[in-house]
Structure formats: C-alpha cells, structure tokens
Amino acid sequence: MGLTDKIGIAILCAFVLFSVVRLFAAPLKLAAKVLLNTALGFLALFLLGLTEPVTGFSLGLNFFNALTVGILGVPGLVLLVLLQMLFV
C-alpha cells in the first residue's frame, strides 16, 4: 500500500466522518436542547419543592414532570400545578 493509497483512504475517511457529523448534527442538537430543558425542568420542580413548607404545595420530582416543564416551560409548570389542584 503506497503513500497515495493511504492519502486517498484518509481523505475518504475524513469525507465520510464529515458527512455523518453533518447528517446527525440537527437531531443531536435537538436532543441536547430537550435534555437541557428537562434538566431546567428538574431544577424548577426542585425549587418548587423547596417552597413547600411555606406554600404547602409540592409536585413530584420525576422525569415526566421535568419533561413537561422542560418542553412547555412556565406554562407547563402552571399546567402541572392546575392538574395537581384539580385531581388531589
């Protein structure tokens, strides 16, 4: 295997790697955004839980609630609070 073959294979590998990264960049960016929003949802639910001694109100700190708050934001938190008030 000569030097030109190795250079050709390296260029081909670089092109394939670039294509794969470019192909999956948008879905990975979306997944990272959802994970970040979910983490912020967990934080919002945790802070709401810290106010429980004062307000007497708490929501469960679980993945579903965090995902709801993470995707919908403040309206999602209000939705969960309203659902908690209606059904409990």
Low-confidence stretches: none
Structural class, from helix and strand content?
mainly alpha
Overall 3D geometry?
rod-shaped
Number of helices: 4
What is the helix fraction of residues, given as a range?
over 70%
Task: Measure the end-to-end span.
Answer: 73 Å
Cα-atom radius of gyration: 23 Å
- β-strand amount: under 5%
How much is the average pLDDT? Answer: 87
Total individual domains: 1
Total DSSP E strands: 0
Q: Spell out the helices and strands N to C.
A: HHHH
Describe the protein's architecture and organization.
With 88 residues, the chain is mainly α. It has one domain. It has helices at residues 3-50, 52-55, 63-72, 74-87. Helix 1 packs across helix 3 (63-72) and helix 3 (63-72) crosses helix 4 (74-87). The longest helix is centred in the first third of the chain and has 48 residues, at 3-50.
